[in-house]
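Put briefly, the fold is written as integer tokens. One such record reads:
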Amino acid sequence: MKKFRVGIIGAGDIAVMHAQAYGELAEECELVAIADTDEDRARRLAEAAGAEAETFADYRRLLEREDIDIVSVCTPPYVREEPIVAALAAGKHVMAEKPLAASLEECDAMLEAAAKHDRKLAVMLQTRFELPVRQIRHLVASGAIGAPLFASAANHHWRGERYYGKPWRGTWERERGGVLMNLGIHTLDVLLWTLGELSAVRADIATLGNRIETEDAATASLKFACGALAQFVCTTTHPVDGSSLEISGRSRMVRYPLSFAAYAQNDAGYPIRDEAAEVELAQAADAYALDAEDVTEGFSGPIRDLFAAIREDREPITGGLSVRRTIEAVTAIYKSAATGAEVRLPIGRDDVCYTTAGLHRLMKTIK
């Protein structure tokens, strides 16, 4: 099997994670080039990765190498669209760090480039590859909990002033959003990936504990096309890091971290625990785990899936088309928070929030 030859654009902290993942998949790939505006940093990353990789200060020189098959784009959010589009135009498949884009306008430019040049575009949303997440999604999709009716999801973090000390963090122009866009997006993405098409959003955002321009807390009420309602929250002001997800049907529930709950009713209609149903859910989850082929978690998960998608000529699990829906949900949350109104989806190209400039202008009106 031919090994994929890989380049990385951007050699900061997140690029280290990408490089480590490629190293874990060394039987399938080889890291051959790294580009960063600070070429010494690119050299340090190559050394740390144990790779005999050529380094560049200009990513366009990396893209000139015809032998490179895949490029990881690990630049800060405000300089992500240009190298992604350029890499696709140069005939490279792309693994993009999240968030994929600041707006639907940027998403569509990337998707159009991927389609035009017949290349795969995947996004590093590795939470989709956690086995418990995949088990939960399977139980919902298979009808094991019945029709999903309600969900709640939370993404809690704590970040201090030093975290926001990097000049691109905490600003609309450079980070392209706050906790919602850059941390909460993982849990929101899993919720959308599991429940499907979103139909409406009502939301609030605030900056509560940090001296930054963007939000450090967000709450949203979500309506799904399947009929389910959901609550979503994320923040960087919570003293205990962690994510949670609960999805319930009429009488059965699945949770992340993976657990189950089920109820029957007594003669008066009050709940009593349905242990047999809980065992059934656990058995279905275990059966899925046994059938799952080579489950790869962490950063290696999306990368290995991209390899398979290229070989099988299919859309990656974290492909750009799927992730666009997550960016649309983020956009809708921001718009609802700014306007105080419910936002219905889809968001059209004529919407003020379709473009990065329009969305950011609106967000800066929030007091």
About this structure: DSSP finds eleven helices and 15 strands in the chain. The mean pLDDT is 97. The longest strand covers residues 237-248.
